[in-house]
Amino acid sequence: MSIIVPVAVISGLGLFFGIGLAYASKVFEVKADERVEKIKELLPGANCGACGYSGCDGFAEAIVNEGVPSNKCPVSSKEILSAISDVMGLEEGDVSQMVARVICQGTWTNADMKYVYDGIHDCHAANQLAGGMSQCYYGCIGLGSCQHACPFDAIEMINGLAHIIPEKCKGCGICVAECPKGIIKMVPVLTGYTVLCANHEKGGIAKKNCKVSCIGCMKCQKVCPNDAIMVKEFLAEIDFTKCVNCGKCAEVCPQSTIHDAMHERFPYEPQPQEAKI
How far is it, in rounded angstroms, from Cα 266 to Cα 7? Predict the structure, then answer.
């Protein structure tokens, strides 16, 4: 009896508290908004964080509970945004389809090298040593930090230069934030002719350091029929809102710095040679 009584008391207390907890869970239950689950299913599921939230789940909850616009997800297509708008009972949002583009042609055979790098295989680490191995301070370091950061496998390294694979790029912008040189830019997906150089040094120095650098000669600016290109600080820049992709700027560029990056096959040099750093 000395054992049966305490066991019965403890069992009774357990049953009592169990019933109480079950009752409380029903009374104080927070009803989950079914729209959150629907939106989670609609979102791409990339969990890239480009929307400013930890992942698609957090973004879906923010759309429903905080009224965050669905077009903050750069990975979403117009069809996805339309479906989310239907779930929320709102007008369809808009999204600008963007793609990443490497504004550089400084491969290991196009740009001269300052030194042989033998350290951590990371662009940020190499950038701490005189701005990287390339004589062009503005050029791609070529160790693939952007490639490792891309959640869509949309970047490959060819001859020491990052290359965006357009059909895989979702426009999340993670590579832009990862590049220590700032040479990866987000551009409208239909952008064609692009100045593939970020060097602001005077023409003679730029040309000495890289075979295909912009030298600020202004030939492209003079020939453009729409005033869509202008040389600023020794570097040509194209205003994509004015450019009609006529290609006249590329025809007169003595350095082959301007290319129809949407249609031309990378790399732009004929037969790149693999180099070791």
Answer: 77
